[in-house]
Specification:
alpha/beta, about 15% strand, 5-stranded parallel beta sheet, peptide hormone binding, receptor, binds 2-acetamido-2-deoxy-beta-D-glucopyranose
Length: about 500
């Protein structure tokens, strides 16, 4: 005999009541994810969302972690500027302040959000905000945790590599777009590391949005008698510079070129010289002198699953091809996991989700298992960085592979055994021209004019250094100035103002 319909309804109501009761008992954590809506960013909301959902699912599946917590995730557009701050404030005013913020990635967006969140005692965890400035946690960025290796960590890598090869100095060559300034901030991280250790740097920049005269740039590097060139630019510009260097006879092992390509793994590696144009052969030869610095990739079985899932979710949205699973996507997954660990630990110590500073410090100075491998956060709340160097190991085929790695936690740089290095084996020796012995070095053909060249070069270098410093000050000034304004309505104007002043600085 089946139960009557009325009894069924009664049962169903009971079940519903029971459910809503447990819902009230569960504590709710409001997460705010602030990332760009624009899918041309590798870390847009659509691209990162599947990783966040994956992380939340794995937290839910772990009964011992946070069984009584419900996560409420809101997504807001950060754009790549002040929109992030506006949306954070709007969310707080119209609804409530979030318990934790994930993002923003873009430097200018992250600066404002991290400052306000620190003031509100809300933890901010980002897979971006990679600029040097965010290292200063004492006051304005006290609540910021960075789960991706910042540019200054990459600076440590270059430093370790320079010590290994016993190189003395370098030229930093970068493209500055004045807007988001990714290469500027990247190179700033390297510059800081070298400066702290007293290495000499020459700095040179150009604007890729205008015509870039690669031959002129290479001539200027040559005239300054530099031997190691560290570049940050688009892959096409890097290729043009390498072609120019090849034409000017600088690809015969006397010079070393570095290309920084941290995020877009499809641009580095095999065939990055190849374009299917008439320069391919020369480019292949030139790239024998080029090494690429990138993130060290580690893989474990769980990563495969994650990668497949993220990829299929993103493909459903028919976004343009590219790296579906990149450092940012991975990083936000690991950010959620880190927050869950910290929350679990402080709750069990009797604190609450509102104890922002406690939560933040619980996340720092620890190593935990991320989706692709162990993640180590230093005592200042910044992730240690592991990086790899890629070089051409087969000049005939033009194929490249990883030749060396840097382990940030240990601060160790080592070459991989069993790879055929373009320069033979061991250290890459560089014969730095000695200015005081210049006249005796016949093979260099140095004469009177070369000495002038060196003096002019040194002068130019100082000029560029000053420009660089000026830029840095400018960045700080605009940010500080924006900070002082409490009136939110004025921010848009200030942002425009800061763009204008950057343009005039260029
Ligand atoms: C990655 O690099 C490739 C090749 O240069 C380019 O086509 C693609 O747009 C880049 N993707 C992103 C997300 O920057
Ligand atoms: C390049 O290709 C070779 C052979 O096809 C492969 O062994 C190597 O791992 C590749 N390197 C990279 C960086 O993809
Ligand atoms: C991948 O996910 C599926 C379910 O979606 C699960 O059955 C499988 O065990 C997972 N594999 C790994 C290696 O975690
Ligand atoms: C970081 O943790 C280690 C132990 O894991 C401890 O010895 C050290 O004092 C901690 N450092 C800071 C700055 O808290």
């Amino acid at each position: 005999m089946s139960p009557s319909p009325l009894f069924k309804v009664f049962l169903a109501t009971l079940v519903l009541l029971a459910k809503s009761n447990t819902l009230e008992e569960e504590e709710k954590v409001n997460m705010l994810v602030i990332l760009p809506k624009d899918n041309s960013y590798m870390f847009s909301i659509d691209r990162v969302k599947p990783a966040i959902e994956y992380a939340l699912r794995s937290i839910k599946e772990d009964d011992s972690l946070l069984p009584d917590i419900r996560f409420d995730v809101a997504y807001q557009n950060s754009d790549c500027g002040n929109m992030a701050l506006f949306n954070l404030v709007d969310t707080a005013v119209l609804m409530q302040k979030p318990d934790v913020i994930f993002g923003p990635v873009c430097e200018y967006a992250a600066a404002a959000v991290a400052r306000l969140a620190s003031h509100w005692n809300i933890p901010v965890i980002s897979a971006g905000a990679l600029a040097m400035g965010f290292t200063h946690k004492a006051e304005e960025y006290s609540h910021l945790t960075r789960v991706s290796p910042a540019y200054s960590k990459m600076g440590e890598m270059f430093l370790a590599m320079f010590k290994y090869h016993q190189w003395e100095r370098a030229t930093l060559l970068y493209s500055d777009d004045i807007l988001e300034r990714n290469c500027y901030f990247t190179v700033e991280g390297v510059h800081q590391g070298f400066k702290d250790e007293g290495y000499t740097m020459t700095i040179q920049n150009f604007d890729e949005t205008k015509h870039v005269d690669a031959d002129e740039i290479v001539r200027s590097i040559k005239s300054k008698e530099e031997r190691v060139v560290i570049m940050c630019a688009s892959s096409d510009t890097v290729r043009n510079i390498m072609l120019a260097a090849h034409r000017q006879g600088m690809t015969n092992c006397e010079y070393v070129f570095f290309n920084i390509e941290l995020f877009n793994s499809s641009t580095y590696g095999n065939g990055s010289w190849k374009r299917g144009d008439k320069h391919d052969l020369e480019a292949k030869q030139a790239y024998a002198s080029l090494q690429t610095v990138t993130l060290l990739r580690s893989v474990k079985p769980e990563f495969e699953n994650f990668s497949i899932e993220v990829k299929s979710s993103v493909q459903k949205l028919a976004l343009s091809d590219g790296d579906y699973v990149n450092m940012f996507v991975e990083g936000f997954h690991d950010a959620i996991i880190l927050y869950a660990f910290a929350l679990h630990e402080i709750l069990s110590k009797g604190f609450s989700k509102k104890d922002g500073m406690k939560l933040v410090h619980q996340m720092w100075n620890r190593t935990y298992e991320g989706i692709a491998g162990p993640v180590s956060i230093d005592a200042n709340g910044d992730r240690y960085g592991d990086f790899s160097v890629i070089a051409m190991t087969n000049p005939e085929a033009g194929t490249q592979e990883v030749i060396g790695d840097y382990y940030g936690l240990q601060g160790r740089f080592e070459m991989r055994p069993n790879v055929k290095l373009p320069w033979g084996h061991g250290k890459l020796k560089i014969d730095y021209p000695k200015p005081d012995q210049g006249n005796t070095c016949k093979s260099c053909g140095l004469g009177e004019s070369a000495v002038t060249g060196i003096v002019v070069g040194a002068f130019l270098g100082t000029g560029l250094l000053m420009t660089f410093y000026f830029f840095r000050k400018k960045y700080r000034i605009t940010i500080e100035r924006r900070n002082r304004q409490d009136d939110i309505g004025k921010h848009r104007q200030l942002r425009e103002d800061s763009i204008r002043s950057h343009f005039s600085a260029a």
